[in-house]
Structure prediction request, 100 residues.
Amino acid sequence: MVLSELWGSIGSMTSSARPSALAGRLGSWAWSFARKTGSGAGRQLLESLQDVAASLGHPRTWVATGDEAVGFYLGCGWAAVEHLRLESTGILTTILTKPT
Prediction:
């Protein structure tokens, strides 16, 4: 999810920004927490991050994730746009997007 050139990215996708370890951990935390609790906290965190992206002028957010989290993002209204295997690790990855 592209936030800004200062913050870097959420997950594995970025524009001209450098990836941010903290931002990546936030995206992972949202999925992990939601999976464990079902409380809606992961969805709320994603919505808040999308609000930040929108306030910075980004019309769309993106995420690259492994198979385990795809259902979570789809349930939050994201759309899968590409499936690929990372060359560096061989891990199956899904690219999802959602308008901000």
In short: Residues 2-99 form a domain with the Aminopeptidase fold (CATH 3.40.630). The chain has one domain: 2-99.
